[in-house]
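Recap for those who missed Tuesday's class. We walked through two folding examples back to back. For each one, the amino acid string is listed first and its predicted structure tokens come directly after. Nothing is annotated here on purpose, so try labeling regions yourself before you check the end of the notes.
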Amino acid sequence: MRSDVTVELVKSSASDADVLFAARVSTLGEQSLEELQKDPERSKGLINYLMRDRHGSPFEHNSMTFFISAPIFVFREFMRHRVGWSYNEESGRYRELEPVFYVPGESRKLVQEGRPGKYVFVEGTPAQHASVTSVLSETYEQAYTAYQKLLAEGVAREVARAALPVGLFSSMYATCNARSLMHFLGLRTQHELAKVPSFPQREIEMVGEKMEEEWARLMPLTHAAFNANGRVAP
């Protein structure tokens, strides 16, 4: 059982300078290539202007590939993000799936109060946390036993996997650019600087927070401009 998610940046070609050469080609043509040799700190005002006035295409000329391990229900939400994203996920058709399942940690708020569109989550009681852990663990054990039984009887993996719940961990590569990542973060994380409030499920927010940490390290000026302008994707 796991209560965490993991995100690893496995490959990247992303820097603040990528935003600058893309933006300045409109006025400098081939001379814009010189931006690659300059200190982007000198042009952070341009990055902020592009972000503020939502000139978005210069933020697309970069790439980040993440290896992510999370419950299947997280990936089903994740893959609603299609523009600027590429995915390849572990397949239950081609390999026997491992019995690794998600159980919320003690800090996970369990109780929803209010109506749809206007609700909050609050802490659960110790009894509720214990019940969630017990019920999910029992359910996972029964489901995986059923899965193994079908496989042992010669049933194809692609059929047997139907017995498994969405709390099963899967893994995938996800590749994006800074613009598509900003759109993801605007919807899938809560932040005090956000102009537009978002109410993500906590488990996908955990993934988003880890991706944001890596992106902020690669493109600190772009990340700062994103925060300074209300965390709205340009």
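Example two. Treat it independently of the first, because the proteins are unrelated.
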Amino acid sequence: MTATAPLTVGFDLDMTLIDSRPGIRACYLALSERTGAYIDADLAVTRLGPPLADELVNWFPAEDVPAMADLYRRMYPEIAVAASPAMTGAREAMDAVRAAGGRTMVVTAKYEPNARLHLDHLGIEPDVVVGDLWAEGKARALRAHGAAVYVGDHTGDVRGARTAGALSVAVATGPCPAAELRAAGADVVLDDLGAFPAWLAGYRAAEASRA
């Protein structure tokens, strides 16, 4: 008899597990004050998801972006971590996977050391954390750890899940509305992670009936 591998569920971080808008806004304002460059922090936090450099290029010359990204990341722990709460249902979603005997992982475009600081601060303890991956690039980590499901709030997360051959579960808590997530190919769209435990129970029951 062949042993069945445990269910592995991946989660995005920003606007999926954590509401990073207050912290990121504060960090952009501090970066603006430090450098003298204008940054519309309120606009920037409406389009979270892609890598930091994709946002910084709107406010700095391209040749300055790597240095500005390094400065932002150094400033980030003191300014942004404590200011960013967990999203509704985040802990319960992780607990539901564990209660089902599964493993959890976080795959995010955020700089990995800062992603870990957020999770530690909030007491959220995934089995695996992988940072610095975006959109289709997330598939590398999802495949490597055998993730069957990937949960995210952005169309880039949908693309990552589909590239990995994982079920795409989207939450409409980030910059992409439900219709846009469905159009991008999400298999499931939830209002927020509060709906995830019930969805997971139904998913597991359906999988068991097919076994």
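Answers for example two:
The CA atoms of residues 22 and 117 lie 16 Å apart.
The first helix runs from residue 21 to 35.
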